[in-house]
Amino acid sequence: MTAADGSRTVSRKIRAAGVPGVLAAPAGIDHEAPLLVLWHGFGPPPEAEGLSERLPLHGLEAYRVYLDLPLFGGRRPEGGPREMGERQAEDYLGRLLWPVVEQATGELPSVIESLREQLDAGFGRGLGVFGHSAGGLVALHVLAEGDLPVRAAATVGAPASAETPLAEIEDLVGEPYDWTPEAREQARRLDIPDRAEEIAAGQPRPDVLFLHGEDDDRVPPSEAEVLERALRRAYREEPGGGGAGEVRKELLAGQGHSIGPERPGESGPAGALEDRLLDWYRQRLVGDG
Description:
- The protein has 289 residues and is α/β, with parallel strands linked by helices.
- The chain is 40% helix and 18% strand.
- It has one domain: Alpha/Beta hydrolase fold, catalytic domain (Rossmann fold).
- It contains eight helices and eight strands, in the order βββαβαβαβαααβαβα.
- Strands 1-2-4-3-5-6-7-8 form an eight-stranded mixed beta sheet, with helices on both faces.
- Helix 2 crosses helix 3 (134-145).
């Protein structure tokens, strides 16, 4: 595949530590080039291949691996849509959101190690993460867990916590969510503003960009402001991180919650979003901005 600037990208489906996804990189890339890990949300697009098509990030001098979230894409449960609907109806947090985020976060070190072996690559110039919607919660949870040296992160349409998607589910089913002690602990782990100091303690302290569509009718754009404010406060109050760190929030005109069209045949280019992400990762991850 050839990008608009004439560079050629090598893209192929892969499995890393059992996790299916899509690997893309410029032809002839340096084996020490950085690695960018990208997660889709619950849709659209609801799988790695769709995200790789809508955000190919051509011209970025980095390995890009788009991973299927647990229960999605090539990891769909045997029960298919029926089982996913049951999970959502029975316990959205405990049977869907939390298991997805926890598993995707926990398997990432093994995925990276598998990619090192498959590609004979060191990724010595750094690690970046990206996530859309629920995938954004995965990316931010990775930062909060603090076990990986993430240099640059970006999210699009990410909720600040589990509260926002749960409120939407409550509206759909017409019943309040059953807040068990286990559910409250899961929600606490997904409360990113509450975990901002853990992110600020990262080594290195990551640069983080919160992007949000002005027309997002699923996750309010105000969530990006909540995330930015909490992380900025933590970065000021926790000066002992590995780097200065930078936090930004930007709203995208004309962008809804989905990346690209929601239904076949619709138009919905993600050009402005992709341009902004390219600029961010070139400056903060690749270092050629």
